[in-house]
Each structure stands twice: as C-alpha cells, then as structure tokens.
Amino acid sequence: MRNKNNVNQGSQTVVRAIDILKLIASNESGARLTDIAHEMQLETPTAHRLLKTLTLQGLLVKDPQTLKYRLGSLIFELGLVAKDDFDISAMCAPVLKKLANETLDTSFLFIRSADDAVCIAREMGGYYIQTPVIQLGSRQPLGVSAGGLALLSALQETEIDEILENSAMRLNIYGSLTIKQTKDLYYDARNQGYAVIENYAVPGVKGVGIPIIQQDGTPIAAITVATTIDRMDEAHIAMIIPKLKKAAEDIKMLLGANTLS
Fold first, then answer.
1. What gap in Å lies between CA 64 and CA 190, rounded to an integer?
2. What CA–CA distance (Å, rounded) separates 5 from 11?
3. CA atoms of 184 and 170, how far apart (whole Å)
4. Tens digit of pLDDT for each residue in 106-140?
5. Of 96, 140, 157, 177, which sits most exposed with the smallest number of CB within 10 A?
C-alpha cells in the first residue's frame, strides 16, 4: 500500500505544476524562474525542479535569450485534442441564441487574453437595428467593451492597475478613454454586479455584460448584450439584466464555472 504522505505530496506537486502553467499562461511574454518562485511562494530549487520537469515533458519552453518560460508545443497539441470536447463558442451558442431571441438584440461571448478581451461568439436578434460591429476574433483592451469591462470587474483592484497601465496608450484610441474613466466604470460595474458602457468600443452602441467566474475566482468568460444607445435605456437594461444573469448561469453550468455573486 502506498504511503498516504507520499500520495498527498504527489497531489501537491501536481497542483503546483498546474498553477505554474496558469501563471505563465497569464503572462504573454512568459516568466522567469525568480518571478515564478516569488509569485508561487516557492523555494527557488523547488520551482526550478518543477519548471525543468514541465520543460522536459514539452509543456514549457525556455527562451535562451530572456530566460523566460513560455507554454510549450504539447499545450497546443493537447488543446487540439480537447477542442471538439471543449469548444466554448460552440457549447455556448444555444445560450447566446436564446438570449438574442429574448432581448431581440445582439448577444456576444468574450474571453480574456492577457490584457485584452476577445470576442469568440455572437448571435443577432430580431430587432430591425442590430450591432454586430465587433467581429469574431477581434480583441480590444479590457475595459473598452461591455465584455471587456465585465471581465475587468471580476479582477481585484491591485491587478487592474497593472493591466490599465499596460493598456493606457491603446485605451486612448477608443474615444480618448483614460485610465481614470476606466477605473470609474470598473467601480460602477462591481457595485452594480454588471457592466454598462457606451460609445467606446463602437460609437453609438451601448452594451451590458456579466462575467462568468471559475472556481478559483478568475473570470473564464463574459456574456453581453448590445444595441443602440437610444434603445438601451434604463427600462431596456432592467429587462435585459435578469435574462443576462440567467444566460450566465446556464453557461456556468455548461463550463462548470461559478458566476460572480
């Protein structure tokens, strides 16, 4: 019979390895050994041992120039295998379609990629004016669109400060959006439990969004509804919010995540 302590130690090692992969995935340019050890609160030799094993298995690669670790080719290969079983856009398509039919407006699904929000799915409703201007696969800084603001609202303030600093120059492209304005919108979204933003991602368009949160507290996606500013008045928002929350709950069930309470 295996020693119970050995089993627990093995489980801890697996968890640490997974956390390292998540940490590196969240840093687009990769991360150095010292940074990983600090963030993970690990002794440097322990972190080095884990990184070496992950690299040998193809889950990570080390840049010889910068000494930064990045995700390896095996991650991509595993993703290809899992794609059909965990295609978020395909899984959520019926929920988006239902939301678009109920609100008569365009519904969107966004995911986070580093400091950006990426549109991965959309469905148009029956209202005679639709707003499908945000293209599939397009990305904008977190905080610009309803989806990006919803994702941002699920993060802690200490984290968003760095994100907004990194995106400051790009934010200005969208209606001269500033860090202060984005933080004000962030606070409003956290207080309300949903994000509302207009004119920045697309002139003349107003969107409402809700984040969908994983069990570890990080946002996995955001679901939104957008239409013209004139149509998206307070009464329309009040009608949309319960349907948006229901859609977020449905997606939570599909993805095994937890929505922000």
1. 42
2. 10
3. 18
4. 999 999 887 889 899 999 999 888 876 788 878 88
5. 157
